[in-house]
Predict the structure.
Amino acid sequence: MKTTSVSIKNQGFSLVEVLVALSILLLVLVGPMTIIAGIGRSADFATEQVEATFLAQEGAELVEKIRNDYFLGYFQGTNPNPWSQFTNSNGYLVNCYGASGCGLEWLNNENLRAPINCGAGTGCRLFLNSDANARARYTHQPLTGISGNTQTPFTRTIRLTPIPAVSPNAVRVNSTVTWRTGTLIADQRVEVVTYLYNIYAAP
C-alpha cells in the first residue's frame, strides 16, 4: 500500500501589505470625516452669527424705545424736554455715553432695566434666561438675580455718540455683539449702527 503525503502551506498577508491596506482605509475615511466636521463647524458659526445679529438689532431697538418713551412723556405733559433728557450724557443714559458703553435689557413688563456699565463686573456678557415666561430671553446676570441663567458666548455693548457735525438733533447708536467661536483666536463681531433724531425739532 502506497502512502501519499499532502503538504499544506499557510499563506497570509505580509506586514507591508497590511500597512498599505490600512493606509488606504484611513485615506478613504479621513476625507469624508474632515468634511463632515467642517460642515458642523460652519453650521454652528452660522447659527451664532444669526443669533448675534438679532441681539445687536435688539440693542439698537432698546435705545430707540428709550427715545420714544421720552417723547411720549412730552405729549402726555410729564416731560417738557425729551430730547435734552435723551442726550444728557450725565443723566439716565450716562453709561451708554461713556467709553465702556452700556447694557440694556427688558424687565418682565414694558419697562427696561437701568443701563449697566460694561466696564464693571462681568461687563456686558449675556446670559440665557432659564425662565421661559421672562420677557428678556437674554439678560445681564448681575441684574437678574436668577441663579439658573446660563452664560452664553455673547457680549453686547451699546454706545451712544452725539454727532454735532451732522446735526445737534442726532445721536449715533452702535450696538455691538462679540463672541468667541470654536478654536478661533480672534473674537467674532456683529455691529448694528443707526441714527436717532429729534424728529420734533423745529426745522
